[in-house]
Inverse folding.
């Protein structure tokens, strides 16, 4: 996800004369470190890899002016919230912080309370009209035919978004 976001942002950053980079786990860090050494205006980062790079001395967050925390509820579910809090504690205290989350309760709410100044909550809710247009389907599929079934559903439905828990699953 970090790389996908970076691919969208880097064109915009380049137009504004800025350099962007992405850091995330699951790949060797050499290229990421080289990008950081050039200097970065916009950094898209996963918390685990970012904290590793901070600990190694490749990243300093003192001058960060804007922080966006996306999927805060998911990061909480995956156990990353303590890491996110440690990262935020290292950022400029006068920064702007934006937090995006499907739900804002429990640990995600505590993050907003402890690391945001005068937060404003914006909530998007579906209207009755939106809900009336929704149709939910459920297919019980085993592993052997799941891919073929998904392909057939997409072929029949047309333009489709498919969410998958893992890159391998996708």
């Amino acid at each position: 996800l970090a790389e996908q976001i970076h691919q969208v942002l880097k064109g915009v950053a380049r137009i504004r004369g800025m350099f962007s980079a992405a850091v995330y786990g699951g790949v060797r860090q050499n290229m990421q470190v080289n990008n950081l050494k050039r200097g970065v205006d916009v950094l898209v980062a996963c918390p685990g890899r970012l904290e590793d790079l901070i600990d190694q001395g490749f990243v300093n967050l003192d001058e960060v002016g804007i922080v966006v925390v996306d999927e805060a509820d998911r990061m909480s579910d995956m156990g990353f919230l303590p890491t996110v809090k440690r990262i935020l504690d290292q950022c400029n205290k006068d920064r702007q912080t934006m937090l995006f989350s499907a739900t804002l309760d429990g640990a995600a709410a505590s993050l907003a309370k402890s690391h945001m100044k005068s937060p404003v909550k914006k909530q998007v809710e579906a209207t009755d009209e939106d809900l009336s247009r929704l149709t939910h389907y459920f297919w019980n599929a085993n592993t052997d035919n799941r891919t073929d079934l998904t392909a057939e559903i997409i072929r029949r439905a047309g333009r489709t978004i498919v969410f998958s828990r893992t890159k391998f699953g996708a």
User: Anything to note?
Assistant: The CA atoms of residues 62 and 93 lie 9 Å apart. The longest strand covers residues 20-23. The two ends are 13 Å apart (CA to CA).
